[in-house]
Q: What sequence folds into this?
């Protein structure tokens, strides 16, 4: 399946709205879920102080 | 050498086991996702009937399968937690619910976006669509019931009831296309007969199913660890972790 051009790829045979509408919402949900969990972990650490095994670089501030 | 099956049923030992396993599943999920999307968009041909719109199948079917499978797993752990009063089993059921609800929402959303060009409608009260919507309400019911009860142990028991009662909905969803034979098509992939799909399309879809498995395991283990920390914050081993964290 070779797409002749990038624009053809995004038009997705005229169904671009539906195909990309599905994929974008799916990735938003997945990214949202991952962020929610790390956010939940961070608020936990704010309450109880730092917990070993946390990514030092990201959480050092 | 007697295997101690219950070694990892204690929150502390499970916490560390899960911590070691998460990177493996994250890595597998990313690799499989890239492979699945590549096969789905650059290898699988155009469908003679649906043109390119069918490519939504690469997230619609994995999400729908995951939504059903995760509910069964959630009901299993909730049942074990209820029967054996094991805290970790109930924690795991609580950890599964949000991911299951997300996949149910994605299945409904991608189904509607696929239905609009192909059926001409976003939504119809079809047997499968309706039972999947009920599944979403069951997930939300499970999560909100557990959130409404302060004492975690009582919340586990209440959640277990909803999970176990709701599990009857899963075969209904699966067989709804045969029993009522309404708009949604029958299973193109099933255990007892050869799949009626082009191989590359099928390969793309199955790779995405595996990717969704790896993703779910990684995310659920990650959330389970946070739940364990929240619930076991009074214990010695969490205090130990905190001390080690502070020294670093």
A:
């Amino acid at each position: 399946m070779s797409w002749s051009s990038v624009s053809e790829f995004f038009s997705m045979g005229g169904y671009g709205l539906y195909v990309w509408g599905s994929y974008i919402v799916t990735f938003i949900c997945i990214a949202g879920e991952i962020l929610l969990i790390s956010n939940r972990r961070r608020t936990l650490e704010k309450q109880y102080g730092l917990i070993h095994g946390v990514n030092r670089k990201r959480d050092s501030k | 050498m007697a295997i101690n099956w219950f070694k990892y049923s204690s929150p502390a030992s499970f916490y560390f086991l899960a911590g070691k396993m998460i990177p493996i599943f994250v890595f597998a999920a990313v690799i499989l996702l890239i492979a699945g999307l590549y096969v789905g968009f650059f290898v699988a041909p155009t469908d003679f009937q649906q043109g390119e719109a069918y490519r939504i199948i690469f997230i619609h079917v994995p999400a729908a399968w995951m939504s059903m499978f995760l509910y069964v797993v959630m009901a299993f752990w909730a049942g074990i937690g209820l029967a054996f009063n094991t805290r970790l089993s109930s924690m795991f059921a609580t950890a599964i619910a949000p991911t299951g609800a997300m996949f149910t929402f994605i299945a409904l959303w991608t189904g509607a976006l696929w239905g609009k060009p192909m059926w001409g409608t976003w939504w119809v009260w079809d047997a499968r669509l309706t039972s999947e919507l009920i599944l979403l309400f069951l997930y939300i019911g499970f999560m909100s019931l557990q959130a409404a009860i302060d004492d975690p142990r009582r919340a586990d028991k209440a959640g277990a009831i909803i999970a176990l009662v709701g599990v009857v909905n899963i075969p209904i969803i699966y067989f709804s296309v045969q029993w009522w034979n309404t708009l949604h098509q029958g299973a193109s992939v099933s255990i007892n007969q050869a799949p009626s799909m082009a191989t590359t399309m099928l390969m793309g879809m199955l790779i995405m199913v595996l990717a969704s498995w790896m993703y779910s395991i990684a995310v659920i283990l990650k959330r389970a660890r946070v739940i364990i920390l929240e619930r076991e914050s009074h214990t010695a081993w969490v205090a130990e972790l905190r001390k080690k964290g502070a020294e670093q």
About this structure: Chain B has a mean pLDDT of 90. The helical segments of chain B are 11-43, 57-84, 87-119, 127-148, 152-166, 169-179, 199-231, 236-247.
